[in-house]
Fold:
Amino acid sequence: MNLSVDLFRGKQTQIFFNPRLSKEKQAILSNAIAMQKTYPEHFWLMSSGTESAKLGRQKMIALKPEAILAAAAGVVKTFDLNAQDIYLKSLPSFHIGGISIFARAHLAGFQILEAAAEPQWNAENFVDLIARERVTVASLVPTQIFDLVQKKAAAPVPLRWIFVGGGALSPALFAEARTLGWPLVLTYGMTETCAM
Structure:
């Protein structure tokens, strides 16, 4: 899915599916969304981590682009994100976490570097990529923080923020990572609240 900050310039309904969802289920959900008239010009996203997913059901969330941008504005202001930042995007574009990065870039004007273009996750490669590309902001999950700490990898100088989400990070691991210079910010967000 090739998205850009331009997705916040239009006024049409957009549906974001996990590419692993079958084409048949995508078609059924797309038709159901097209038939309803209550939520025009919304972004439709699948919620992650819900009980309905365990039962084989899909929970779709309708969000106004303005709501996503409002949530992004809070992050941009709180963390002083700006046009000089380079954000390493490792979150999927069909998830609110990934879409929120595009919203923040739309508002702050920073460059997004897609991590998907790089080889599969590897702590050393990640540190090298940050240093080589002068990345200032990134998002990781606790398992990746664990890998960085296990390798005793020090945070490269240009890095300003690492937003950690997708699960709980133990206080001990948080402290070890901070000792190595990783500028961690623990986050939590629900799709319904536009994340973080």
